[in-house]
Amino acid sequence: MNKLITTLLVFCILTGTAFAQKEGNEKLFKDSYIKKTMKKALSWQLKNPKHELYDWTNGAFYAGVFAAYETTGSKKIWKAMEEMGEANEWKAGPRLHHADDHAICQTYIDMYRISGDRKMIQPFIETMDEFMVTPYETGDIRKCTWWWCDALFMGPAAFVKLGETLDDDKYLKLNDKLFKECYDLLYDKEEHLYARDIRYKWDEPGIEVIKESNGEKIFWSRGNGWVMGGLVRVLQELPKDYPTRDFYIQNFKEMAAKIISIQQEDGLWKASLLDPEAYPGGEASGSGFYTYALAWGINNGILDKEKYLPAVEKAWVGMNSLIQPDGHVGWVQPIGADPRKNFSADSWEVYGTGAFLLAGSEVIKLKP
């Protein structure tokens, strides 16, 4: 009898715990909760600025800020973006060919589409005019203009957004050329992931092979997150009948299938995609971009809902576990070019917040 009572008590406790967890998780998907959490994370980040406002880090952050504005309609968020643009004089960063310095222009273009104020895009038009007539010098590592995979978030969407806004496909064609060069250089067609740059490829003549501790190829989580986020932002813009659209869709689908196959139990992804055991904690920035990309794929009918929705729901629960009491997004790997171990709940970066905001902006659109 005592054994039976004990068994029943354990069952009730476990059932109650599971019910409480389910109830808590359901809260995370309510529109009001998502908006509240996005505003909290955004408010903290705006009070704790970092880097030059034209920097690539803020390019990713303000992409998320604009997504938060679209999601919430907050006038305060719009004002924050205006202040950023005015401080930058609506200019790209100073490096003409460097995709990192073009990322912030995505937000300028998005804002122009609402306000119609030409000053928001004119400097970028002038930058692109110069870009298109100025040769780019390559090198041992820099074998093409976009020679590192992160560039595929920074540059492509800015080019395509500008082309669509001006109804001028020369920018789209330029993006096709530069994107395909990067794809040919860095995309691993067996693993369906991108090397961060040529130094992390296995079969490149003259390049010393770098391996993870378990002998696997090095595929950086945030680097591939940049790519998937960039693919989303290109596909959002390209016309349905655009000649190369299927190339981007195929690349997106291949990466999506790979990414959900290596999702961790907590719903997140470690800093190194193929050597998760060697790295602590779920990494917020890569995980945020995957959550954003996968949710967008479902919302736009590109990814099968039955297959991908459980992964997105699991990821969003995991992402919320990274929000700290004061509102900052923790567990963000610092700036680098490969997987790192030196981050914790206290580690934050503006691009981590940007990734979280982008994820929330798509998760809120999901339908059961």
Automatic annotation (TrEMBL):
Transmembrane segments: none
Keyword Magnesium applies: no
Entry annotated with the keyword Metal-binding: no
GO molecular function: hydrolase activity
Top-level division of the source organism's lineage: Bacteria
PANTHER family the record matches: UNSATURATED RHAMNOGALACTURONAN HYDROLASE (EUROFUNG)
Keywords: Hydrolase, Signal
Gene Ontology biological process: carbohydrate metabolic process
Protein's recorded name: Glycoside hydrolase family 88 protein
Segment forming the signal sequence: 1-20
